């Protein structure tokens, strides 16, 4: 199904897209390997949809090169590209039945009728809509329309399937269900998926790799785990998941890499950050890595402990969220239930002096000055 | 809960005015229909008895039937030409990036507002003095196109305007060339609007009088024939002809309404989907 060659399924080399003065994409380079579930993640206006539309061939590149399976396709019109798209609003043809929608692309290929019939059946089966083949798009729910769009695109057996926020229009429950479904379909058909979303949870749960975009640039590319645990800058850390940021500067405590918090405390950090010492930096710790309690931490790991006051305790169902004001900044800690007598948490901590601690190995130093710049770029950039 | 103490009075007087208006608009037409079935040779009250005699007379009147035939020929040709020209113009108006879109739109639709007398006189001068054409059904057709094309442009352009461009992207994405996308996706979806434009052209052409009067040659159309006949006194035969015309016109307009309703329903579905997105 996919090419046996070593060329990546999709390759962008220094791709720039300008709309008049506005720069939607600025010298973006990335490679998407065959079979990946690749996610373009970022806030609106970051250039992710522009990237998708460039790959689909709907808008022309300003400069740079786009390759599909090693072939330069800059000037190839969309109907000659071996990629198919699931549009955000599905774009089902309202005057055709579900089966005719799925068959449309195959008829354009002039496949024999029995082959078309076989494939329509196969792909409607794949998305679980076999009984709906004679319905019209106007008679489908959002989730069903979404599946038809998916079947219609997949029936062409493209090298790459592009998905433009396909779950955006669905309600929360259905979206979770479709996330699982999409992952299953990806495993089943083995096609390369390129998925655009602004929902970090969607990206983390489905993607094999994520490109975090902002202001027309790619900030970081990596597996969900790499990006969550080792964000390159404060923007990425803030966009993916929730984070605590403590201001300060990189210092040395004589025994290894260390970080001096704004209250003067020097805490150890896992590795010496290179090249970031001169810029503004922050120490990032994920809330689930922060421990909190009235007594000292147990365990054998050499934890960093600082003191503070619990200013808010919120019960969140399966966990409790504790906000602690320290003189180095505000820290949010999550305490998952089932560890100890949780009913006591609230009475125990609210407005009390507490200790917060974390394992230095779970903290990361990130550059902080990037954040402002990217926000401004976001405001200036075009939609997409 | 009444907002004003006079609410009831106001409502009643509004109803009265509305009723009077309806009577004013439709009572003459009603009388025409009734008189076409009246036995009396000079139509008028009181009604003396019911007869289909005038309809029979109408069917036996060679000259009248020829006028009806002329009208139908003109209407069909006008409808076909207006639909083709108007649809192409609508595509240009909506799709081509022309320099002055609003001015162009107004230029396309202005003939609707221009008085028919003006169009008629200018066409007569143009045909007779500039082109040196002799007046015939051909000149009538040209005259009717002036007023029917704008309607087709308006109807088809508004449909194209609301057309979801993503549908064409999807067609291209699935391997359709631009030509195939127009043929399989765009045209079927705007077909109801095109049909509505064609039907409205038929009704406009059938009962167009003013422009016809200036551009018609020796072969009268139905309205010009009725007019010349009325000069010698209204016979119930004319009432019968007018009644038949009324029924046909209303029927055609009804079909156009159905077509446009279908167009709106398709668009509505697409809209809802987009709003959900």
Would you mind describing this structure in some detail?
The complex is a heterodimer of chains A (384) and B (277). The longest helix of chain A has 18 residues, at 172-189. With 384 residues, chain A is of the alpha+beta class. Chain A has helices at 48-56, 98-108, 113-126, 142-154, 172-189, 200-206, 224-229, 234-239, 343-349, 370-380, and strands spanning 10-19, 22-32, 37-41, 63-68, 71-72, 83-86, 160-164, 192-197, 209-214, 217-222, 244-252, 257-261, 266-268, 281-285, 290-293, 304-315, 319-326, 329-336, 353-358, 363-367. Helices cover 27% and strands 33% of the residues of chain A. In chain A, helix 2 (98-108) packs across helix 3 (113-126), helix 2 runs parallel beside helix 4 and helix 3 (113-126) packs across helix 4 (142-154). Chain B has two domains: 1-26; 62-276, MetI-like (MetI-like fold, Orthogonal Bundle). Chain B is mainly α and 277 residues long. Helices cover 78% and strands 0% of the residues of chain B. In chain B, helix 2 (53-60) crosses helix 11, helix 3 packs parallel to helix 6 (137-161) and helix 7 (165-173) packs antiparallel against helix 8 (178-206). Classes of the chains: A alpha+beta (384), B mainly alpha (277).
Write the layout of secondary structure elements.
The complex is a heterodimer of chains A (384) and B (277).
Chain A: E1 10-19, E2 22-32, E3 37-41, H1 48-56, E4 63-68, E5 71-72, E6 83-86, H2 98-108, H3 113-126, H4 142-154, E7 160-164, H5 172-189, E8 192-197, H6 200-206, E9 209-214, E10 217-222, H7 224-229, H8 234-239, E11 244-252, E12 257-261, E13 266-268, E14 281-285, E15 290-293, E16 304-315, E17 319-326, E18 329-336, H9 343-349, E19 353-358, E20 363-367, H10 370-380
Parallel strand pairs in A: 3-8, 3-9, 6-7, 7-8
Antiparallel strand pairs in A: 1-2, 1-4, 4-5, 9-10, 11-12, 11-14, 12-13, 14-20, 15-19, 16-17, 16-19, 17-18
Helix pairs in contact in A: 2-3, 2-4, 3-4
Chain B: H1 7-35, H2 53-60, H3 62-95, H4 101-109, H5 116-131, H6 137-161, H7 165-173, H8 178-206, H9 210-215, H10 222-230, H11 236-276
